[in-house]
């Protein structure tokens, strides 16, 4: 196997979000369009695939494809999705490959023929065990999803035959371990559920003529819904013509993801009553106290480093400046970069403003360091643009451990914070100095009690037990057949997995 090219930044990404979920129950509203705009607001959480299911009370129709929300849907498609219940999803693959079958919402049928469609944010840690159970029940089938979400849907639909969807959820969810913020529906009812630890966010909003559920409050804002409350850890919500029903399937043991505050969530989102933007500015202030630097200008690595750079500048009294321009639309284009484009490396994403940088001692504020390749290229680019000193400040502690609850950082061996101490990382990225905010100060900035947060990627203390290596990982289900994992996004790929596609429109 060839070694990865350390200068090839097209393969070096920061932490990748897992997914965004959105649901609407709103008779008289164009729920497909509401969901489209909701997903648009959540696009940062997943850019590989998008899908919307809509039910009119008698039939569920799912439309999904690989690509950005704006690439998958157009006016014509949205106008063909009529009904009063909708479930939406934008995906980055954390379990299963990035192929069409694994796009969500999933769709399964009960033995009585009614449908269940489901969107999942988070990652399960007992997928192999659940898959064994599904296999024993005869729910394994060809040409279906190879995701934890697919297994969950198949088990839910199976149990719903006898117990109804709420009864099935109450029975199934206590056996599911890991992170799950779910939005699902049958023909008439919208459901939402959150794992007992509430690792990933999920909020409830009110429309004049209905309800919405979303991964982040920013998605409520964009559809004009007012924030009601968070879906509680261990809670199941059901919304239909009878109103809103709440029940519990487990006692809450909150362990919200602290990384949502650092990078994952939108800055205009509020989590557990705390503004993400205000948290990031506060982290920057605390970073300046912990790691002061002599510099002429504080510049952010846009966009996620911007609030922390503002805080750093405020606390240090050193002027804030924009020294880097982000190529906002480079995103995931689905076009393989040519060799010439590859060699541009970081310039594909960020371009320096020489008049701000030349002759200056820079303090560069970024949200996190994962592999370190991007920061190494960044420091080199800033020096080439005329910086006389480059002091790197990071608005989170070193990422030393992988995440098993829905964030794709890298394997442990690839994490630069795992193999090197801070001086080693400084030398590796070529900075004049390097400072990370401490975990204590990061948590203080979030204004959440330490006991209610997951910080496992920083301290290795996993709040939900992780099974043995061979029973976990992105391709845990595809591991059944090594060829399947390599089929990538080939539309011709034949898979074995869980779920059905009977009501799914393939573009
Ligand atoms: S390990 Fe890190 S990224 Fe994963 S849930 Fe915990 S805090 Fe969040």
Task: Give the neighbour order of strands across the main sheet.
Answer: 12-10-11-1-4-2-3-26
Bound molecules: iron/sulfur cluster
Shape: elongated
* pLDDT averaged residue by residue: 87
Number-wise, the strands total 26
| Overall domain count | 2
CATH homologous superfamily of the largest domain? Aminohydrolase, N-terminal nucleophile (Ntn) domain
Give the C-alpha Rg: 23 Å
Entry summary:
The protein is an alpha+beta fold and 507 residues long. Helix content is 28%, strand content 23%. Strands 12-10-11-1-4-2-3-26 form an 8-stranded mixed beta sheet. A 6-stranded antiparallel beta sheet has the order 5-6-8-9-13-14, with helices on one face.
Description:
This protein is an alpha+beta fold. The protein has 2 domains: 19-255 and 487-498, Glutamine Phosphoribosylpyrophosphate, subunit 1, domain 1 (4-Layer Sandwich), CATH 3.60.20; 268-453, Rossmann fold. An 8-stranded mixed beta sheet has the order 12-10-11-1-4-2-3-26. A 6-stranded antiparallel beta sheet has the order 5-6-8-9-13-14, covered by helices on one side. A hairpin with a 4-residue loop joins strand 8 and strand 9 (190-194). Helix 4 (127-136) packs across helix 5 (148-172) and helix 8 crosses helix 9. The model is unreliable at 1-12, 480-496 and 499-507 (pLDDT under 50). Iron/sulfur cluster is lined by residues 199, 257-259, 403, 405, 407, 454-457. Residues 19-242 form the Glutamine amidotransferase type-2 domain. GO terms for molecular function: 4 iron, 4 sulfur cluster binding; amidophosphoribosyltransferase activity; magnesium ion binding. Its EC number is 2.4.2.14.
